[in-house]
Amino acid sequence: METYVIENRKTIGSIGKYFNQLEWLYRAMSKDETRRNISVIHVDNGIYFATDGSRLHVVSPDIEELPNTPEYNLPDGDYKFLQINKKQIILQKEDDIIYPDVWSILAYKPRNDIRPMIIARLDKKDYRKANLNRLIFHIISKTYNMFDINLIDDAMFEGKIHFEQYSKNYGCQNPDMSPIIMGNCDQFAVVMPLKKEVTP
To answer: Is 84 in contact with 23 (CB distance < 8 Å)?
Structure first.
């Protein structure tokens, strides 16, 4: 099977960003190897996807800024992480995977009534915690839904974060349980809220 090696060359901005995006996709990918169809990242028409059933991470790499080699512009298909660390990622192309229809999840009419936020300095532990607390409060206070803190932490990245929800009239059987869509034109996450327990 074909393998692809991506080195973390931080001195080259576009390559460092691409490496970070692959790491970010890995966070959302299922780690349960019995769920083979979602324990991979999926590439479709240059868009990269990862999901574990509770969230979806989507990346659109800036191909024009990256080297013109296959590891920086993966062919359509599904890829397993053979190795991931701070220096190197090794991907292996997998065959016979039936990936979920992620495009149907993204076919929604957006509702943009949550102001954007700036997230910075996530490499510092204290700053990351402060950013996460601000982000969680911001989301809950605007959506009135509860979210898994770990999933929001995984979805967070540096930069200006925009937010959307499904329209109340489209794409969600229960609009009060709309996922939060957070990110920008390069990468974004779709995170499902926690189910509300109703006591009689």
So the answer is: yes
Distance CA 200, CA 190 (A): 31
Final residue of a domain: which of 66, 96, 126? 96
Residue 200 lies in a domain: no
In the DSSP assignment, the letter for residue 172 is -
Q: Is residue 66 part of a domain?
A: yes
- Does residue 199 form part of some domain? no
Give the C-alpha separation, 189 to 50, whole Å. 10
What's this model's pTM, rounded to 2 decimal places? 0.90
Of 178, 158, 166, 163, give the one whose Cα is nearest residue 116: 163
Please write the tens of the pLDDT for every residue from 60-97: 999 899 999 999 999 999 999 999 999 999 999 999 99
- Write out the two tokens for 184: 């920008």
Residue 136's Cα: distance from chain center in Å? 17
> Of 40, 66, 96, which marks where a domain is finished?
96
**Cβ–Cβ under 8 Å, residues 158 and 17:** no
Name the one residue in this structure whose structure tokens are 């991979």. 40
CB 182 within 8 A of CB 58: no
Q: How far apart are CA 18 and CA 184, in angstroms?
A: 15
